[in-house]
Amino acid sequence: MNSIYKKYLTTIVLIWSGCFILFLLGYILVLAPQEKTKNRIERQLAEKERIYNSALQTTRTGTKLKLNEQIELMRNNLRDFVVDFEDSANLTFDISQLANERKITSFSIETENAAGDSAVPDCNYICENRFDVAFTVGDFNQFASFLNALERHRPVIFVDEFAITRSDSDGSAHRVSMTLSVFVRKQQDS
């Protein structure tokens, strides 16, 4: 009975080993790729649920009011840095007014390029408007006062560069040239 038992045991071990190998191959070829697909789909589902919850959150009245307040605050902040296209023509007048208030003499201002604005890289909604300004000042305090007024102006006027040429004689005015730039909202096609 020992040999029959040994034969029977060997047959069972071979059958179980073969089944195990077949099941292992089946898992590797069929179930493992499905596991990867299942994980990917679960990640997509989680992302869609997040988007859905966000959309659901925005439909609530309190959230809408909060978002509208944030948008209005951002628009007000934008007005500090960007002038509307229609108001860009008034900037030369505003700058001249600042110069007159500080009693700056021989003041001249002109737009740097004929088109009036230059493109800002990777920006679809704003462009840059540049001005060349020349004037004379009696002392540094007068220049500093004008420069401070330019930098505090709303919308912001950026002083790109300036040069001061000392006068040849003592007591006379020093010549200043500046390049200024501002951001202008592009005119949108209707």
Tell me what the structure shows.
With 190 residues, the protein is of the alpha+beta class. The chain contains four helices and six strands; from the N terminus they run H-H-E-H-E-E-E-H-E-E. It has helices spanning 2-59, 61-81, 90-101, 140-152; strands spanning 82-83, 105-111, 118-119, 126-137, 158-165, 174-185. The longest helix has 58 residues, at 2-59. The termini are far apart. The model has no long low-confidence stretch (mean pLDDT 82).
Low-confidence stretches: none
Structural class: alpha+beta
Helical percentage: 40-55%
Tell me what portion of residues adopts beta-strand conformation: 15-25%
Short description:
With 190 residues, the protein is α+β, with helices and mostly antiparallel strands. The chain has four helices and six strands, in the order H-H-E-H-E-E-E-H-E-E.
How do the helices and strands line up, and which of them pair or pack?
Layout: H1 2-59, H2 61-81, E1 82-83, H3 90-101, E2 105-111, E3 118-119, E4 126-137, H4 140-152, E5 158-165, E6 174-185
What brief labels describe this structure?
23% strand, 55% helix, 190 residues, 6-stranded mixed sheet, elongated, alpha+beta
